[in-house]
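Customer escalation, tier 2.

The customer says the design service returned an amino acid string that "doesn't look like it belongs to this structure." They asked us to rerun it and document both sides in this ticket. The original structure tokens are below, unchanged.
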């Protein structure tokens, strides 16, 4: 009986490649800090901000993620673009009404990923905040955000981590 000699090599290679879900290196909660630049009415401002981001794997597809940006109270879909990188898809966040004005955040584009030592998450994205008030006032602010942080310790509750974040991202974007 003659067996193909390549079969054991193929089976060994398949066994070595069963490394698990690469998204697991990204999944978790991250208290993050960074810089937000806003432009409104021809004026540009830069602010240090903090936020909390939760990255989750999407069970519908092996290359999809969900990225919760707590400061904007918004979850965006993301697609893996490399072993530790993802692109954040355009997302219109649910509108919020405060003091007679409705604010709508649109995340236009973004990227995220971890550095080579698998520890720090870096997220960059841009978008707009539009306001429409009951008294007829309207306004729009564009922003770009660059933030980074390390995964929180296991056992930390989301509520505790969100309390760390505060609402400085919202304030910097002009949302009360």
């Amino acid at each position: 009986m003659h067996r193909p000699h390549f079969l054991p090599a193929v089976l060994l290679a398949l066994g070595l490649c069963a490394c698990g879900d690469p998204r697991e290196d990204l999944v978790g909660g991250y208290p993050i800090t960074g810089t937000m630049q806003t432009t409104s009415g021809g004026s540009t401002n830069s602010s240090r901000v903090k936020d909390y981001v939760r990255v989750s794997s999407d069970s519908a597809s092996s290359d999809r993620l969900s990225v919760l940006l707590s400061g904007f109270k918004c979850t965006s879909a993301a697609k893996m673009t490399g072993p530790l990188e993802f692109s954040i898809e355009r997302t219109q966040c649910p509108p919020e009404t405060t003091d007679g004005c409705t604010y709508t955040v649109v995340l236009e584009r973004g990227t995220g990923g971890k550095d080579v030592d698998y520890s720090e998450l870096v997220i960059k994205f841009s978008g707009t905040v539009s306001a429409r008030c009951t008294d007829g006032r309207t306004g729009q602010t564009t922003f770009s955000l660059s933030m980074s942080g390390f995964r929180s310790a296991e056992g930390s509750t989301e509520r505790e981590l969100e309390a760390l974040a505060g609402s400085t991202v919202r304030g910097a974007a002009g949302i009360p």
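Tier 2 assessment: The sequence is consistent with the input. Residues 6-17 form the longest helix (12 residues). Residues 6-18 have pLDDT under 50 and may be disordered. Sent an explanation to the customer and offered a walkthrough call.
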